[in-house]
TrEMBL record:
<dbReference type="Pfam" id="PF01467">
    <property type="entry name" value="CTP_transf_like"/>
</dbReference>
<keyword id="KW-0119">Carbohydrate metabolism</keyword>
<dbReference type="GO" id="GO:0016773">
    <property type="term" value="F:phosphotransferase activity, alcohol group as acceptor"/>
</dbReference>
<dbReference type="GO" id="GO:0016779">
    <property type="term" value="F:nucleotidyltransferase activity"/>
</dbReference>
<keyword id="KW-0067">ATP-binding</keyword>
<dbReference type="GO" id="GO:0005975">
    <property type="term" value="P:carbohydrate metabolic process"/>
</dbReference>
<protein>
    <recommendedName>
        <fullName>D-glycero-beta-D-manno-heptose 1-phosphate adenylyltransferase</fullName>
        <ecNumber>2.7.7.70</ecNumber>
    </recommendedName>
</protein>
<dbReference type="GO" id="GO:0005524">
    <property type="term" value="F:ATP binding"/>
</dbReference>
<keyword id="KW-0808">Transferase</keyword>
<dbReference type="InterPro" id="IPR011914">
    <property type="entry name" value="RfaE_dom_II"/>
</dbReference>
<dbReference type="InterPro" id="IPR050385">
    <property type="entry name" value="Archaeal_FAD_synthase"/>
</dbReference>
<keyword id="KW-0547">Nucleotide-binding</keyword>
<dbReference type="InterPro" id="IPR004821">
    <property type="entry name" value="Cyt_trans-like"/>
</dbReference>
<dbReference type="InterPro" id="IPR014729">
    <property type="entry name" value="Rossmann-like_a/b/a_fold"/>
</dbReference>
<feature type="domain" description="Cytidyltransferase-like">
    <location>
        <begin position="33"/>
        <end position="126"/>
    </location>
</feature>
<keyword id="KW-0548">Nucleotidyltransferase</keyword>
Length: 164
């Protein structure tokens, strides 16, 4: 017997920027916010995301839109995975409560909409250089930089694949 599959439950964790403020208000606090490209999800990403989630009760992840990734100059073929695919993969992670995207070059508008209690970035971002850190701190929140536990990168992975 063949049946049609039910919709994936994790897709409910994906929202548009226009929905972000309202959806963020519905999350259990403290709310943690992070952002990035998350193109080819690897061990470094999932370790970092789980560690970020442990800083509160609900983790929001904002991904760079496809156009935003292109402006970062990571290469003409980036992103490898589309924005929709990157968001769905992130939403499937248990540690992630909500996923959105941002079109701008920085996630500042998403941070202002979500009003997180904790802003988190990877170890290559000192707090004083984090976009949104001052704003989050202005409403009583904190900004943290989490040291990389596993030195991995999508760029390095792609270089390795291209050499094969």
């Amino acid at each position: 017997m063949t049946t049609t599959g039910k919709p994936a439950r994790f897709e409910k964790k994906v929202c548009t920027p226009a929905e972000l403020a309202e959806r963020a208000k519905q999350l259990k606090g403290p709310v943690v916010f992070t952002n990035g490209v998350f193109d080819l999800l690897h061990r470094g990403h999932v370790t970092y995301l789980d560690q970020a989630a442990q800083e509160g009760q609900s983790l929001i992840v904002a991904v760079n839109s496809d156009e935003s990734v292109k402006r970062l100059g990571k290469g003409p073929d980036r992103p490898i995975n589309t924005q929709a695919d990157r968001m769905s993969v992130l939403a499937a992670l248990d540690c992630v409560a909500l996923v959105t995207y941002f079109e701008e070059d920085t996630p500042l508008n998403a941070i202002l909409a979500a009003r997180p209690d904790v802003l988190v970035k990877g170890g290559d971002w000192p707090v004083e250089k984090m976009v949104g850190a001052k704003e989050v701190q202005s409403w009583g929140g904190t900004a943290l930089s989490i040291a990389f536990e596993h030195e991995r990168s999508t760029t390095a992975t792609l270089e390795k694949i291209r050499k094969l």
